[in-house]
Design brief:
Structural class: alpha+beta
CATH topology of the domain at 193-274: Jelly Rolls
Number of helices: 3
Strand order of the largest sheet: 7-14-9-12
CATH architecture of the domain at 193-274: Sandwich
Radius of gyration: 51 Å
CATH class of the domain at 193-274: Mainly Beta
Distance between the termini: 122 Å
Number of strands: 14
Helix content: 10-25%
Shape: elongated
C-alpha cells in the first residue's frame, strides 16, 4: 500500500484505511502492485453501462441504447436487407413515395421474385399496357397515337407518333435530291445492257433473272427470232416472230425468271436490250 507524502511529513491516515493492511505477524503492511503488462481484466456482463449486456434487446430504429443493443438491431436489419432485396423492380415499390431508407425498407417486400416477375428475372417495363390510355412520362419503348399531329416548340421532348393501327408514322421532312426538284419528283430512267447479234446462232443474253426491254432490228437477212426464259434454247418461250431486214424496234418490257436466250435462224442484224 502506498502512503502519500508531502513536505517530508507523514499525512494522517485513518485506521479504517489501514484495516486489514497491517500484518501483525511480520510487523509490516501488506501491499500489492500491478503496473503495465499485467494480465487481461474481466468485466462482468452488464457491468459496463455503455457496452451493455450480451442479452440486451435490440434497440429500436433511431433510439438510444447500449452498444450491444444497437449491434443486435444492426445485424437484424442487415439480414432483412439481404432477404428483401433479391429484387425491387415492381411497380408498387417504384414510386415517388419511397423517399427515405426506412420507407424503402418497409416497401421493398419480396421484390423481383418468381411470383412477381416472369421467370424470376428483373424486368423493366412501362407503367401502362399497350392499347391503354397513356399515362406518365417518357421513357417509352413504344409510341403514342394522336388524332391531330402535335406541334412541339424548341427544346421539348416528344413521343414517337403512331397511326390508329399502331404503325409508326414517319416523314422525310425534307425533299430528297432528284432530277426534278422544281416539280418535286424523283425521276427514273431505263438502263439496259445491249447485246448485238448478226449471225444465225444461239446467244445467252443473260444467265440470271431480269427484264427484256427491246429488240432493235437493223438489217441483214430476214429470219425468225425466238427468245426463251432459260440459259439454253429450251423451256418457256418469251417471244417468237419473223422479221424483215428493215429497221424496226420491238418493245417487250417482259421479265424473265431464269435467264434470256435468243435464237436467230438467219444472219439478222439486231440488238437485244435487257437488264
Amino acid at each position: 500500500m502506498a502512503i502519500p507524502a508531502g513536505s517530508g511529513d507523514w499525512q494522517q491516515i485513518s485506521a479504517r484505511a489501514l484495516d486489514g493492511a497491517y500484518d501483525s505477524g511480520t510487523g509490516s503492511f501488506r501491499t500489492s502492485g500491478g503496473g503495465g503488462g499485467g494480465g487481461a481484466v474481466t468485466v462482468a456482463d452488464g457491468a459496463d453501462v455503455t457496452q451493455g449486456a450480451v442479452a440486451d434487446a435490440a434497440a429500436t430504429a433511431g433510439s438510444t441504447g447500449t452498444v450491444s443493443a444497437k449491434l443486435r438491431r444492426l445485424t437484424a436489419d442487415l439480414d432483412s436487407v439481404k432477404t428483401n432485396t433479391t429484387g425491387i423492380a415492381t411497380a408498387s415499390n417504384q414510386s415517388t413515395a419511397n423517399t427515405s431508407l426506412s420507407t424503402i425498407a418497409t416497401n421493398t417486400g419480396n421484390g423481383a421474385t418468381a411470383a412477381n416477375q416472369t421467370n424470376g428475372n428483373q424486368q423493366v417495363q412501362g407503367n401502362v399496357a399497350s392499347g391503354a390510355a397513356d399515362s406518365g412520362n417518357p421513357v417509352k419503348a413504344g409510341g403514342r397515337y394522336n388524332s391531330s399531329v402535335p406541334t412541339l416548340t424548341n427544346g421539348q421532348r416528344g413521343d414517337l407518333q403512331l397511326d390508329a393501327n399502331a404503325s409508326l408514322k414517319t416523314t422525310l421532312a425534307t425533299t430528297i435530291a432528284g432530277e426534278d426538284l422544281t416539280a418535286n419528283r424523283m425521276l427514273t430512267e431505263n438502263r439496259n445492257t445491249p447485246t448485238y447479234i448478226s449471225t444465225a446462232t444461239t446467244t445467252v443474253v443473260k444467265s440470271s433473272p431480269g427484264t427484256l426491254r427491246t429488240i432493235v432490228v437493223q438489217g441483214g437477212t430476214t429470219g425468225t427470232i425466238i427468245g426463251y426464259d432459260n440459259t439454253a434454247a429450251s423451256g418457256t418461250i418469251l417471244f417468237s416472230f419473223d422479221t424483215t431486214n428493215a429497221l424496226a424496234t420491238y418493245t417487250f418490257d417482259a421479265s424473265f425468271a431464269i435467264g434470256l436466250t435468243v435464237v436467230t435462224s438467219a444472219a439478222t442484224k439486231l440488238t437485244v436490250n435487257a437488264r
